[in-house]
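Fresh eyes needed here. Kindly weigh in on this sequence plus structure tokens:
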Amino acid sequence: MTAAKGAGQQAIAVNVGSSSLKVTAFVREPGRPWQSLYRNWPLATAEAPEIAEFLAVAGIREHRLLCVAHRYVHGGAVLPRSAILDEPLLAQLEGTAALAPLHNPPALAWMHEFRALLPSTAQVAVADSAFFADLPEGARRYPLPQELVSAQALRRYGFHGLAHSAMWRRWCEISGRSRGRLITLQLGAGCSAAAILDGRPLDTSMGFTPLEGMVMGRRAGDLDPGLLLYLLRNGGINAAKLDEILNRCSGLVALAGTDDMRELLAREDQSAKLALDIFCRRARKYIGAYLAEMGGADALVFSGGIGEHCPQVRAQILAPLAALGLQLDAARNSAASAGEADIGARDTGVGSAEIHVLPADEARELLFNAELLLQGEET
């Protein structure tokens, strides 16, 4: 059941992370844009009655609900794009839990909760990797035997698609453009980069799982696969232990004992400095690769908790890249610690790129994707 056209409508966006549950209640009166109210709970303590109380306070009524849009991190071949979350799809998604062990199991649990809480409302599963579904074959294909690739649906799926598409959409709004070369950086507990040409992703740093790519809070990012084989064969480590190491015990926390970037920046010890150096080096490698792939960039965008709130990290990442057209304005960068900001240097010449901080509105991207799906079903 969906809300009647012409009447005031409502919608809910559910974003389950590895440690948090974010719920956004949207309300739209006829002829007006969506308005939203947002709430964030620690995943470990979130309970359905609390969510129901929040929705009641927000004025949500099921007979006015257009949909509940759920972010799903990794549906593999089961969920390449947004889809109605019915019982058959939910059963299929249960088989994908191992693809993203930090994200998929809690997301599935809350899908069940919201279906029970709002049984008459259309529920939509929005694939976080959908933005990268049509990556060029050269960017998505692993050089593995074809029979293995086909049998296991092995490819580079990419993640944080909602964040990267939100950055592209917002950059288009503020620049007044609909075409361009954009490098987007989502830097938080998880980190990823993307190269976007005229709205189409050409490449991204995460791959078959969210483990590939940049150094993250508790994930190492790119590693020599031979190192992992060595640990399995000679390190007394089984697959379950290796999974634990790769998803929960690596990255910044392995280098410096914490995954809190603010704490690292406040410290002066060598391990903290090394962690920051490795983090920034890896981000710079991807920026450089994407500059080469696109022949430059019209803009670079930072988002995510680190990208939005840590001027020192932005400066350290970009310091060696000024000669390639990515030059910060030091004062504006230092002042930008919350909200949107233009932090690029002025009058840097032909070939220079804009540099922005743009918070990614994933909740609105969830709603946008769900609305597109529902409109397509109705036509």
